[in-house]
Every structure is written in structure tokens, then in C-alpha cells.
Backbone:
């Protein structure tokens, strides 16, 4: 060994030999001239046996081209793969620097990064796997893989591995800084997946559930019905779908306020959920409509019993802001009794049955029957015909006189809409008026009725033999009254016809005072300011709150025909009618008795002091062009 080499060895002394990092002195040919114990241990060869051997012997052949011996002023740093004497491959960071100026020796530092690289690769693999996790099973698998990495790379037991991943501080303190960093890297991957899964779960819940009640929404309900139908087809019992509509909820919501209305909807959802089994599904379809899916029924007829339990659950009032709120529910029931039914059909059938329940009295349960589907198809066809008729103006107005009972004189006439259908004949109003309401066609149709009735009134003027203040009554629906610009429509129709406003009477049922009360009051006051008179139709059959008569601008009460029909009954029936007549007189309101059909009824009404009436006994409805000829010019 040269003097320079001896000098270098002497300079490093015991530190050179005992340092934990592998170190070696190499000559310009790449042969080991001296090595420390750490390097000998790194390659698995005794230190003395390494002297004179070439470094490239321990470097993998495909990495040897990196071993550039052109050492200049800058250290050479490379990561190479080396082979131990036992054939084990290790990853080493190899740093070469010039050891002396006089005769070039190379000082090599060899840092084993095999475990470090293995950990990086394991983390990369864990990260790649984490991107594939889409469900709870995948998340559990990820946790298992993370725990196994800690066991493999840190040599901990599974329990202690789980503890450090869970953030156990007492175990973490025992680890080296590098090991703690490794554990934190693994934990960050797991935490990121859990955070992503929570976000995905939250997004799914938002997309699949109703935000107000927490129930599943319409889309999820339909999917569950489809799945249940498939299971029923495979012989796994019967199922039923119930559609539930809360009767009169809008009225309650408007009176209590939307905040209390929302709370009431949540209470309804909880009560319905408590009625059914945990395996069944309660959904909020929208607004005040709910759906229930019941599976695993032994027989289809069990469905009606479930529907009745739901209906009866509403008999107990709800407590809202210290008040008891009474509600009822209209329920439609459809079952999977017929094989091969499509999920969409089942939902539609339940909806049809629910509509039937509402239309036939509310607070009822109706089981679907095929006739409802046929009726729905006919209704759709009738609506199309109605739409075409509205566009073509294919209607006419008949008029039923309003008669002064004491004299027989006509004081006015009510316009009655008639639809002469080209193939169906004369369509009854009860068949098409509700259809016009539901479809919104009542708005253009109602405007046509208003303008046409006023035109007829103008045409009658020179031919009327009765009073010149002969009024025309036109029925107005809630839908029309709520339409923006309705007052303008009335104003324009009066101006176009030239009819004095006081001749026009707008008839409406008591329901207009419930729906959108504040808006209704403003519209009615605007109509009163025009000079138009307001008549409350079918008085006594609806809410009949006397406060409405005080707060709303009403001029005329039209006593419902049910009161007239009961006049020949008990003394109590006559007493009720007498009280209503007296009420009208006290409030300075005109009162018209509807549905007078017998002379006995007429005589009793005269005795009770009723001044005006309508009915077949007095005069049947007649075409507009014949009315002037029938109008009496003197008392009958």
C-alpha cells in the first residue's frame, strides 16, 4: 500500500472503521484497497477478503454503466443495485469522492436504501389500490393491507400495528423518526380514502334521500320498487306499493307557516316509518305525498290491512307549536298480484288508486282495480278533446234565471257552461270542469265564459222585458282567482262589453278563502273597487267560517241545495235554514236559495223570509238566445 494510502487511513483512523455507513477506499482501477466493517456487513463478505477485489463484482451488470470513474472536483452520487454474497439484491446510494490530491484514490460511501425503497414501493401500491376503493368492502380491505405493511416493515404484531395506525401515542413514541414517517404516510392514505368514502356517502345520501324528512326520495323509491318486483317474480313473496297524500296539508301549511309545516312533514314521516317494518321503505315523493313499499307479503290481500293501519295512524292529532293539528290521508294501494307487471305500472296503479281515494271523499283507502286504469285513459283522451275545444271555442252558455220568490220576477241569470262534444254528446260539467281545473285549462276557458256572458248580456238589453239591472253571474275558480292579472282580465272584459260593473256577479266557493288567503283578499277587494259583486256559492257545504263573511267583501250568499232538500225534514233542518237567512239579513247580504224543486220548498222559503231563489221549479237552464223571450215582464 502506498504512503498516500497509509496517510489517508491514518487520517480516518478508528472513525473510518467504526462508522455505521459503509465506506471503502478504491484505487483508480476500482479495486478495494480498504473497507470498514459496515461495508463488509453490507455485502456479506469479510473485510480482509474484499481487499483487491473489484467493486463492479458486487454491482448488477445492467447498473455498471453508471459506475463512472472519472472523478473530478464534484462528488459522484448514484443509486445502484448491488448483490450480496448470498445473492440478495440490495439498493444502495453510492457516493464517490477523491480521497487525495497527490495520487488519486477514491473514497466510497455506501448507504443501504433497500428498506426505504421497499417502503416507497409499498406506499405507491397502497395508494394505487386506494383509488380503486368504491365501497365499504374495499375500504375494509385497504385497512387490512395497511396493517399488514406495518407488520412487515416495522416487525410489529398485528395488534400493535392496528394501534399505531389508530394513532396510539405510546406506541408511536417507541418508533424511529423514519418509522413514524412511514406509519403517518400509510395512515394518510387510509384517512384520505375514509374521507372520500364519507364524502361519497354524503353525496349519495343527498342524491337518494329527501333533505327535509331523511326518507328516500322518488328516484330511490322507484329503484327499490323495481328491485322488489324482480324478487317477487322469482317467487319471493308478494309486494305492495302505497301512495299516500296528506289531505288538506296546503291549508294547514299556509295557516301555520312553512317552518311549522316542515316540522309537521317530519313528524308525519316518523309516524309512517313507525307503522311499517324496518325492512319496508317509506319515501317522500314530493310535497305532501309519500310512498310506501312493503315486501314479503304472504298474500296480496294483506296490503289493504297495512293501508288501513297507515290511515288510522293519522287519527291521532299532531302537536305543532302547542296546537293539535288534525290530518287525514288518502291512500292508494297496488299489489304484485298479477305476474309480469312492470314497476312503472305498479307505481302508476298506486297513484291512480290514491287519486280515486281523494276524489271519493278523502281519508280513504282504495285498492287499485283495472277500471281505474281505463278511466285514466279515458280522462287523458277527454283532456285532449277539451284542449282542442278550448282552442276552437267549441262551447256554449246556458243561463238559469235567479228569481224573486215573492213576485216571480227575474233579477238575473247564472251562466252555465255546456260542452256539446261531436261524438260524446253533451259532456256533463262534472266530467270536464275538474279536468279543466287540474290541467290549467280553466284559466282560458274561464276568460271565454266571462267575455261571452257579458256579450250575451249586451245582446239581451233591448229585448229584456224585466228590470234593466238584470245581473249576470259567472262562476270563478280558485285557479282563476290566483292567476296574475285576473283583475285586469275582468276590467278589460267589462270595458270591451260596456256592461256596468254592478251588473256582473262573480260566484266562487268557500275554498277560495282558504287558499292563499292574503292574496285572495287583495284580489276580491280590487274587484269590489271595480263595482263587481261577489257571491259565495254552495254556502254551508265548506268551511263556513263566519269570520270570512266579516273580513272578505261578500255581497251574496247562495244557500246550498242540500239545505233546501232538508226543508221538509225535521224542525232542526228548518231552524238551520232560518238561521242562515237571518244571518244574511243581519249582515245586509242578499241570499239565493239553490235547488228549489217543489212547491212545498218554495212556500217554506217564502215563510222563512228568503227573497231570491233558483231551481227547476222556478226555471230550468235555457239557451242564451231564448232567455229574453221567457223573461217575465210582471209578477207571476
Residues:
Amino acid at each position: 500500500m502506498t504512503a498516500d494510502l497509509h496517510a489517508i487511513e491514518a487520517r480516518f483512523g478508528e472513525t473510518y472503521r467504526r462508522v455505521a455507513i459503509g465506506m471503502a477506499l478504491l484505487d483508480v482501477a476500482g479495486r478495494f484497497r480498504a473497507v470498514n466493517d459496515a461495508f463488509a456487513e453490507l455485502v456479506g463478505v469479510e473485510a480482509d477478503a474484499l481487499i483487491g477485489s473489484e467493486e463492479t463484482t458486487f454491482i448488477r451488470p445492467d447498473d455498471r454503466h453508471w459506475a463512472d470513474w472519472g472523478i473530478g472536483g464534484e462528488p459522484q452520487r448514484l443509486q445502484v443495485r448491488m448483490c450480496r454474497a448470498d445473492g440478495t439484491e440490495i439498493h444502495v446510494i453510492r457516493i464517490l469522492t477523491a480521497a487525495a490530491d497527490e495520487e488519486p484514490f477514491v473514497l466510497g460511501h455506501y448507504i443501504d436504501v433497500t428498506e426505504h425503497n421497499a417502503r416507497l414501493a409499498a406506499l405507491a401500491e397502497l395508494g394505487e389500490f386506494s383509488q380503486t376503493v368504491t365501497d365499504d368492502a374495499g375500504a375494509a380491505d385497504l385497512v387490512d393491507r395497511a396493517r399488514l405493511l406495518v407488520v412487515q416493515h416495522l416487525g410489529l404484531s398485528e395488534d400493535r400495528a392496528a394501534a399505531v395506525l389508530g394513532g396510539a401515542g405510546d406506541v408511536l413514541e417507541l418508533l424511529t423518526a423514519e418509522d413514524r414517517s412511514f406509519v403517518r404516510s400509510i395512515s394518510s392514505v387510509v384517512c384520505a380514502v375514509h374521507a372520500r368514502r364519507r364524502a361519497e356517502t354524503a353525496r349519495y345520501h343527498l342524491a337518494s334521500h329527501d333533505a327535509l324528512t331523511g326518507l328516500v326520495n322518488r328516484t330511490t323509491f322507484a329503484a327499490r320498487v323495481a328491485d322488489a318486483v324482480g324478487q317477487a317474480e322469482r317467487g319471493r313473496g308478494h309486494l305492495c306499493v302505497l301512495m299516500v297524500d296528506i289531505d288538506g296539508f296546503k291549508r294547514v301549511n299556509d295557516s301555520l307557516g312553512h317552518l311549522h309545516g316542515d316540522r309537521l312533514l317530519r313528524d308525519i314521516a316518523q309516524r309512517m316509518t313507525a307503522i311499517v317494518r324496518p325492512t319496508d321503505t317509506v319515501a317522500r315523493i314530493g310535497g305532501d305525498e309519500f310512498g310506501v313499499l312493503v315486501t314479503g307479503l304472504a298474500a296480496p290481500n294483506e296490503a289493504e290491512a297495512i293501508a288501513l293501519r297507515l290511515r288510522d295512524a293519522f287519527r291521532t292529532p299532531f302537536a305543532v307549536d302547542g296546537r293539535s293539528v288534525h290530518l287525514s290521508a288518502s291512500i292508494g294501494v297496488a299489489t304484485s298480484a298479477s305476474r309480469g307487471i312492470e314497476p312503472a305500472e305498479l307505481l302508476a296503479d298506486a297513484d291512480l288508486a290514491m287519486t280515486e281515494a281523494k276524489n271519493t271523499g278523502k281519508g280513504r283507502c282504495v285498492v287499485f282495480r283495472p277500471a281505474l286504469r281505463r278511466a285514466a285513459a279515458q280522462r287523458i283522451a277527454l283532456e285532449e278533446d277539451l284542449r282542442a275545444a278550448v282552442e276552437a271555442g267549441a262551447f256554449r252558455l246556458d243561463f238559469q234565471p235567479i228569481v224573486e220568490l215573492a213576485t216571480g220576477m227575474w233579477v238575473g241569470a247564472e251562466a252555465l257552461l255546456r260542452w256539446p262534444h261531436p261524438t260524446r254528446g253533451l259532456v256533463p260539467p262534472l266530467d270536464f270542469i275538474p279536468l279543466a281545473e287540474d290541467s290549467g285549462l280553466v284559466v282560458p276557458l274561464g276568460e271565454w265564459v266571462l267575455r261571452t256572458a257579458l256579450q250575451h248580456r249586451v245582446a239581451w238589453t233591448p229585448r229584456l222585458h224585466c228590470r234593466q239591472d238584470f245581473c249576470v253571474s259567472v262562476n270563478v275558480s280558485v285557479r282563476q282567482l290566483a292567476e296574475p292579472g285576473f283583475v285586469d282580465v275582468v276590467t278589460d272584459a267589462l270595458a270591451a262589453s260596456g256592461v256596468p260593473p254592478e251588473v256582473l256577479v262573480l260566484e266562487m266557493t268557500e275554498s277560495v278563502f282558504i287558499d292563499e288567503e292574503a292574496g285572495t283578499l287583495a284580489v276580491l277587494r280590487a274587484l269590489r273597487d271595480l263595482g263587481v259583486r261577489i257571491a259565495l256559492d254552495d254556502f254551508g257545504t265548506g268551511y263556513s267560517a263566519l269570520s270570512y263573511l266579516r273580513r272578505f267583501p261578500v255581497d251574496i250568499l247562495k244557500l246550498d241545495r242540500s239545505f233546501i232538500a232538508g226543508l221538509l225534514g225535521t224542525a232542526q233542518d228548518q231552524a238551520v235554514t232560518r238561521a242562515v237567512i237571518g244571518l244574511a239579513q243581519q249582515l245586509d247580504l242578499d241570499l239565493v236559495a239553490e235547488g228549489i224543486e217543489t212547491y212545498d220548498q218554495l212556500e217554506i222559503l217564502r215563510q222563512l223570509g228568503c227573497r231570491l231563489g233558483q231551481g227547476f221549479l222556478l226555471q230550468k237552464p235555457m239557451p242564451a238566445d231564448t232567455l229574453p223571450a221567457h223573461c217575465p215582464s210582471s209578477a207571476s
In short: The chain is about 45% helix and 20% strand. The two ends are 151 Å apart (CA to CA). Residues 3-112 form a domain with the Beta-Lactamase fold (CATH 3.30.450.20).
